[in-house]
Specification:
The structure holds 2 protein chains of 2 kinds. By secondary structure, chain A is an all-alpha fold. Chain A is built from 4 helices and no strands. Chain A has one domain. The longest helix of chain A has 50 residues. Chain A is elongated, with a radius of gyration of 22 Å. Chain B has one domain. Helices cover 86% and strands 0% of the residues of chain B. The radius of gyration of chain B is 19 Å and the shape is elongated. The N and C termini of chain B lie far apart (63 Å). The chains are: A mainly alpha, B mainly alpha. Chains A and B meet through helix 1 and helix 4 of A and helix 2 and helix 3 of B.
């Protein structure tokens, strides 16, 4: 396989991997997050949050993938980039690393969203209890 | 080529072992803490799974990013040093993200505890 063909194949494989990893993480958290989202106050908020979760995991994964540039200080032209197989492999590793890191940040963001939901859901429940007691 | 692949696989194996051991060590106490704090079982599952993901994603993102693109005439110890460099990056990133997760869990426990106390 020539370096150019390797570049084309590995680029699209990494793109597919980004989507697949985003989907796998979404499937891992989907049910438990849906349970947390159900506690959110408001009528449409739970369903909105549940629909946003896949986008909020797959898009960061894609962002991580596209954020890696093949051009660097010592390799600016296409010919220089495809000249070394080692450089292409290192870039693929960098892409996968960036994908995983972006998903990690996204997971922490959704944890924060979960925290806010639980905080305000709890607040709402306590206030209603107080109101019932007052009545 | 074989030495590069072997070094990368060893680094990958250690980077998978560390989060696994950490998760097994902390799982039961984190589970107890979350059960005590959250009334929703889904919340407990969500935060436990997130912890597992945080550990693996942090460790693997650093380990996979380590390039073993050394000169063809490199000696055995050069691969070992490169592996150690990757492991250092992996452990550092794992510790940072576990710290962030712990801050998040502390805020969760503190805010929900305050609400319960009120």
């Amino acid at each position: 396989m020539t370096n150019e063909r390797y570049l084309i194949v590995s680029y699209f494989v990494c793109a597919a991997l980004a989507i697949a990893l985003g989907v796998v993480v979404y499937l891992t958290l989907r049910r438990s997050f849906a349970g947390v989202a159900e506690a959110a106050p408001g009528k449409g908020l739970p369903s909105m949050l549940k629909r946003l979760l896949p986008c909020g995991l797959v898009l960061p994964a894609l962002f991580g993938f596209v954020s890696v540039s093949y051009q660097s200080c010592d390799r600016t032209t296409y010919t220089e980039i495809v000249a070394s197989r080692g450089y292409l492999v290192a870039k693929n590793q960098e892409q996968i690393s960036s994908i995983l890191l972006s998903i990690l940040v996204a997971v922490l963001f959704w944890n924060l969203v979960g925290l806010l939901i639980l905080r305000f859901a709890n607040g709402g429940r306590d206030e209603s209890k107080v109101r019932q007691m007052d009545d | 080529m074989i030495l590069e692949l072997s070094a990368f696989l060893v680094l990958l194996a250690i980077s998978l072992a560390v989060p696994t051991i950490l998760f097994l060590l902390l799982r039961s106490s984190l589970n107890d803490l979350l059960r005590h704090t959250l009334r929703l079982q889904a919340g407990v599952t969500f935060y436990l799974r997130s912890f597992l993901l945080v550990l693996y994603l942090a460790a693997l993102s650093a380990a996979i990013g380590t390039s073993f693109d050394l000169k063809p005439d490199s000696r055995f110890m050069e691969y070992v040093w490169k592996g150690a460099e990757g492991l250092s990056a992996s452990l550092e990133r794992t510790l940072w993200f576990v710290a962030i997760y712990l801050v998040l869990i502390t805020v969760l426990v503190a805010t929900l505890k305050v609400k319960d106390d009120e």
